[in-house]
Specification:
301 residues; seven-stranded mixed sheet; 31% helix; globular
């Protein structure tokens, strides 16, 4: 197995911690070069690729210099996700785009990834008319300070819910809701898809939950919808127990349950989804991108 030199920027963050753990658990023959968000391109000279786990502002500053040196970048920030020439990758869905040998690769918003892992298996069963999703997002998505605050908070404070803290746009949609809409449209290659999200922060440590309501152009049998989920890698249907975010913590799969038709609307389907925000939502997805690069003959040799 070929050995690779790999950079990791933002090495002290929660996602970086998970990424380092995954690399160690898989015993991958990668030599890691670690740096904080104030890194320079020179620190990664000779690396095959760099994982960027820092804020988008840092990525916008440093990524151009890395690309100029011919170093691949797998960027987990939102800096380049919506650029038309940057592939936005969930390997199970559109990993084939990596065959084009892009130098810059974006990993989606964690909530988008969890949503599309459940939604994509249905894409060939009918035409999506509208996707409505309510998200219940763990504090890990807000960084280490929010995790520490939850762990150390008095019990009465841990019961609060709040709308996602990202800024509002002029239409009243917050930044997180906009990311889900626009990224889903790009990854599914349906630019006019009607996606409506409501994002809520909840007092859960690291697994996000989503309540999905998707309307098709026609009625689709539940058996066909369930079979599509069962056949798709990386998502598991749970029916032998109540599905909670605690169940999904520290697991790589996305989980779903409660597949059913909407009352009085046979063209609409409801589904409950949970997934570890730090794993498939972030670090694991990025690692799978890197592993796809390694096994693609058009890539690093």
């Amino acid at each position: 197995m070929k050995k690779y030199r790999v950079g990791l920027i933002g090495a002290s963050g929660l996602v970086s911690h998970e990424l380092k753990n995954l690399i160690a658990q898989k015993n991958l023959p990668w030599t890691l070069s670690l740096a904080g968000r104030e890194a320079t391109a020179h620190q990664f000279k000779g690396c095959d690729w760099v994982f960027f786990c820092a804020p988008s502002s840092a990525s916008k500053t440093l990524t151009p210099a890395l690309l100029k040196e011919g170093i691949k970048v797998i960027d987990l920030s939102s800096a380049f996700r919506m650029k038309s020439d940057v592939p936005l990758i969930i390997p199970e869905i559109n990993g084939d785009l990596l065959k084009k040998d892009p130098l810059l690769i974006a990993s989606p918003n964690c909530t988008t990834t969890l949503l599309l892992m459940a939604l994509y298996p249905w894409q060939n069963l009918g035409t999506f008319k509208k996707v409505v999703v309510a998200t219940y997002q763990a504090v890990s998505g807000g960084g280490r300070k929010k995790v520490d605050a939850l762990i150390n908070a008095p019990s009465t404070e841990t019961l609060d819910l709040m709308p996602h803290e990202s800024p509002l746009n002029p239409t009243g949609e917050n930044e997180e809701e906009e990311k889900i809409r626009r990224e889903a449209q790009k990854i599914l290659e349906i630019p006019t898809l009607n996606v409506v999200a409501t994002c809520i922060r909840v007092p859960i440590l690291r697994a996000h939950s989503l309540a999905l309501h998707v309307t098709f152009d026609r009625e689709i049998p539940l058996t066909a919808l369930r079979a599509a989920i069962d056949a798709f890698p990386g998502i598991t249907y749970v029916e032998d127990r109540p599905l909670t975010p605690q169940y999904a913590q520290y697991k790589g799969d996305v989980f779903c349950a409660r597949l059913r038709q909407a009352p009085q609307d046979p063209k609409s389907i409801l589904l409950w989804i949970v997934g570890d925000q730090l794993l498939k939502g972030a670090a694991l997805n990025a690692l799978q991108i890197a592993e796809t690069i390694c096994t693609n003959p058009l890539q690093i040799v």
